[in-house]
Amino acid sequence: MTERVVPHFQEELEQFKARLLEMGGLAEERVAAAVHALVERDAELVERVLDGDGPLNLLHIDIDRRAFKLLALHQPMAVDLRAIVSALKINSDLERVGDLAVNIAEAARRYLRHPPVKELIDIPRMGDLAQSMLRDALDAFVRRDTALAQSVLNRDDTLDALKTQVFRELLTFMLQDQRTIEPSLDLILVSRHLERIGDHATNVAEEVIFMVSARDVRHHQGEEPAT
Amino acid sequence: MTERVVPHFQEELEQFKARLLEMGGLAEERVAAAVHALVERDAELVERVLDGDGPLNLLHIDIDRRAFKLLALHQPMAVDLRAIVSALKINSDLERVGDLAVNIAEAARRYLRHPPVKELIDIPRMGDLAQSMLRDALDAFVRRDTALAQSVLNRDDTLDALKTQVFRELLTFMLQDQRTIEPSLDLILVSRHLERIGDHATNVAEEVIFMVSARDVRHHQGEEPAT
């Protein structure tokens, strides 16, 4: 847009960021579907989540290639370089979120073979929280908003507390009735998968804070010899 | 060493790779210590693993900064660029392996509060396997050895099979004796942490294959317009 930059590069960079956001949206959607399938005991939706990993994996490769191309052809400096390197890491985090959606669906498939252990309340709550953390972390990336990124970090404790609560409650069930042991194990796994999705959102948020604050660090480093 | 390259860059690149290997060695060591502490019921070693995450985290940041500096100051091309981008991802994988060593130690701490459920055989086996996968994946990175990387990918199935075996055996214990439920849960978690360490080794190995084969891909891409 401005005269000082190469328009081709800026255009490619914007496309690159748009793809990353698309990937974020898709990952979030898949987490929502996996949790919904578990809570609603929707075996058909479980299978759709299990079979639907393709588009996310293709996006992951595409974003990776775009990042590499941006680095190789345009040799971007400072702010843009940092954004591309950050996006590369965020891309890995989002791919793993997609894997975790599959893991949740796998646990859901096993869980549905048993009668329900209990009404699921904390797990969908964890799902909503993890999704909102992911969404805000990506918004923070786009807007370079460290305050929003910090708010993502703050929510991680709530997610951890919910995971502990889920564990304690299910342990009680398991101790009381051994028929609940196997399905409870899968719910415990789901709660851990959701916690890890929160961890990935946290990684993204930390990356945003590092990316934005690195500008200042970099100014100082410019004055030192490049040892 | 050769006359065509900037010696300063090559020197920094070698230092950078050396740091990554150091990080790999440290991550592997911490996994070994965590598993050893669990198997030998060594509460003191458990605490040392829990307290000893600092050096790995510092290395993680240091490697990240070196990568960024290499990209920003030297604008490397083709093979070197791909190696640096790959190393950035491997760095993230190794950091998470370090986190998983902490997770294993946390589970070990809880496990040691109970009498042993059983003699641990498959879990140390999983630990050895995960470590060897990690070591070979990093060797494959340094030597650009796709055959070795492929052998890492092949071992992942064995690790998965061991995890399933651990799960089935512990489930039997839990169903027979409810006093084993809580400690068995921690062993199941440990087996999953080890499986994830194998997944990270797999990521590294896939990165090596992509890094080496991307040279060919890149040749073709050079003939197309940069859209």
Q: Which terms would index this structure?
A:
elongated; 84% helix; mainly alpha; 7 helices; homodimer; 227 residues; Methane Monooxygenase Hydroxylase, Chain G, domain 1; disordered C terminus
End-to-end Cα distance of chain A, whole Å, is 36 Å
Biggest interface found: A-B, 29 and 29 residues
Figure out the total of helices of chain A.
7
Counted beta strands of chain A: 0
- Order of helices and strands of chain A, N to C? HHHHHHH
Q: For the residues shown, what is the average pLDDT of chain A?
A: 90
Query: How many domain modules of chain A?
Result: 1
How helical, in percent, are the residues of chain A? over 70%
What is the SS-derived class of chain A?
A: mainly alpha
CATH class of chain A reads Mainly Alpha
Compile the SSE list and pairings.
Two copies of one chain form a homodimer.
Chain A: H1 7-39, H2 43-51, H3 54-74, H4 78-111, H5 122-143, H6 146-176, H7 181-221
Helix pairs in contact in A: 1-2, 1-3, 1-4, 1-5, 2-4, 3-4, 4-7, 5-6, 5-7, 6-7
Task: Give an account of the 3D structure.
- The structure is a homodimer of 227-residue chains.
- The first copy, chain A, is mostly helical and 227 residues long.
- The first copy, chain A, has one domain: Methane Monooxygenase Hydroxylase, Chain G, domain 1 (Up-down Bundle), CATH 1.20.58.
- Chain A is built from 7 helices and no strands.
Short description:
2 copies of one chain form a homodimer. Chain A has 227 residues and is mostly helical. Chain A is 84% helix and 0% strand.
